[in-house]
Task: structure prediction
Amino acid sequence: MDEVQERGETLIVTKRGKPVVRVTPLEAAIPSRDLKSIFGSMRGKATIVGDIVQSEHSDTEWERMAEEKFSDLLGEKKA
Result:
């Protein structure tokens, strides 16, 4: 990847002689004027509300809710 970036050339990766992936320098794929608009364009657009690590439900509650949801989807009657 470093060579692709430094040289500015596209690299074709093959598997058993057949091309499967093309690695292209980002500047060649996306005009430089658009690069600035892509990276960091969402900065300040989202807000974290609450704890993103700890759930408000216990593992048991999650299991119960999942069982209810999947039984509804599968048309199973609740016991």
